[in-house]
Automatic annotation (TrEMBL):
<dbReference type="InterPro" id="IPR001647">
    <property type="entry name" value="HTH_TetR"/>
</dbReference>
<feature type="DNA-binding region" description="H-T-H motif">
    <location>
        <begin position="37"/>
        <end position="56"/>
    </location>
</feature>
<dbReference type="InterPro" id="IPR050624">
    <property type="entry name" value="HTH-type_Tx_Regulator"/>
</dbReference>
<dbReference type="GO" id="GO:0003677">
    <property type="term" value="F:DNA binding"/>
</dbReference>
<dbReference type="InterPro" id="IPR009057">
    <property type="entry name" value="Homeodomain-like_sf"/>
</dbReference>
<protein>
    <submittedName>
        <fullName>TetR family transcriptional regulator</fullName>
    </submittedName>
</protein>
<keyword id="KW-0238">DNA-binding</keyword>
<feature type="domain" description="HTH tetR-type">
    <location>
        <begin position="14"/>
        <end position="74"/>
    </location>
</feature>
């Protein structure tokens, strides 16, 4: 059972962590992580050292937890919009990406610091990983067209489904499944969603670097338009390339 004291302590803990995180982000704007000390961090946050060590082992541990929190935020965000992206609509996801950091300039500025270089790549990997696991299997479903066979993103051929063999939608792939190496099909998917994730995050990063002069709606529209040119049709065309590439044809 949660007591009022527990709630009060949770609020106090969150406030303390927020103060420390804001102080760390301010310091990272001026110096690399390896030059930041616990002393200057706690002085800037107006938190004593004992309190700091109650939450973190050291500055590196604090940065790592901040990094993991940010990655988790983008991972959860991507999962929330997988169904829309499966239908080819990336706009709701892209809008939330921009909205989530609006008013949190210091957190976004972390991507522009030397210490945020790896974090930038981690966020791209997190978004790409979720899309590869959840969206890609849907856009590859029906790759066999009228044959009724589908090559899943995990490289396995899906079992025949009598209910889905009667008709083939215009969104389904029409590549001969016997001519596509499942491993290469997954590789193409990895490249495509890595490209999409990198594009979204890079647009966000550039928007901040330019002073966020453009409205969120304009950025959402531009980013969505660019991403729309990397959708199902492009994936279909890339799969067709495998049929013509030596050593990439599927085995019979």
């Amino acid at each position: 059972m949660t007591t009022k004291n527990d709630v009060k302590m949770d609020r106090r803990t969150r406030r303390t962590r927020l103060l420390l995180q804001e102080a760390l982000l301010r310091l990272l704007a001026d110096k690399p992580l390896n030059r930041i000390t616990v002393t200057e961090l706690t002085e800037l946050a107006d938190v004593n050292r004992v309190t700091f060590y109650a939450h973190y082992h050291d500055v590196y541990d604090m940065f790592d937890q901040l990094r993991l929190d940010l990655i988790e935020m983008y991972t959860d965000m991507t999962y929330r919009h997988t169904q829309e992206m499966c239908n080819g609509d990336y706009r709701p996801f892209i809008r939330e990406v921009y909205m989530s950091l609006d008013g949190r300039e210091q957190l976004l500025s972390l991507l522009s610091t030397p210490s945020g270089g790896n974090l930038y790549a981690d966020i791209i990997d997190a978004i790409s990983k979720v899309c590869t696991e959840t969206v890609a299997p849907q856009i590859t479903l029906g790759i066999g067209g009228a044959s009724g066979r589908a090559i899943g993103i995990d490289g396995a051929a899906a079992a025949d489904d009598a209910s889905s063999t009667d008709e083939t939608t215009t969104d389904q792939m029409t590549v001969d499944p016997t001519m596509v190496d499942p491993t290469m099909a997954k590789t193409i998917s990895d490249y495509q969603f890595g490209y999409i994730a990198g594009g979204v995050v890079n647009m966000l990063k550039d928007w901040f670097r330019r002073g966020r002069r453009e409205s969120i709606e304009l950025m959402v529209g531009m980013t969505s338009n660019l991403i729309s040119h990397s959708g199902r049709e492009v994936y279909r065309e890339n799969l067709k390339l495998l049929e013509r590439m030596p050593g990439t044809a599927g085995t019979h």
